[in-house]
């Protein structure tokens, strides 16, 4: 793979990674700060939860000898079981493990596992479909309740103005 630095400012560095023999395909890797966060246009870390070869290519080009903390997911650490659920389930945790990307990755893995199990029999499939439908309805109701509370708060602010 070839790595080229596309831009460099105080906040974000952007690299472009290409395979040696493929000039038409390229991936962009953004590094914020001193490896405070990193993302790749292939979205492998966000969807699957594992690092892509593109990020490793940039690490090699930048002569990074240790794995930056921003790319070590909490679920890979010894404390993973302790940190799975925040103390107050109604509040988002500020820990890196509970970022949106981590939530998406966890949901993705859980859904893949559910797909595998639900296709074992028609009974398992019917149970899974019914439970998914009920869960979706519950999530929609939660979203609607939050939006109603938000609107009530906005109406209250307007009447005081």
From TrEMBL:
Location(s), subcellular: Nucleus
Family: Belongs to the FHY3/FAR1 family.
Annotated TM spans: none
Entry annotated with the keyword Zinc-finger: yes
GO cellular component terms, A-Z: nucleus
Single GO term (MF): zinc ion binding
Role summary: Putative transcription activator involved in regulating light control of development.
GO BP annotations, alphabetical order: regulation of DNA-templated transcription
Alphabetized InterPro entries for the sequence: FHY3/FAR1 (IPR031052), Znf_SWIM (IPR007527)
Protein name stated in the entry: Protein FAR1-RELATED SEQUENCE
Tagged with keyword Ribonucleoprotein: no
Domain SWIM-type positions: 27-63
Top-level taxon of the source organism: Eukaryota
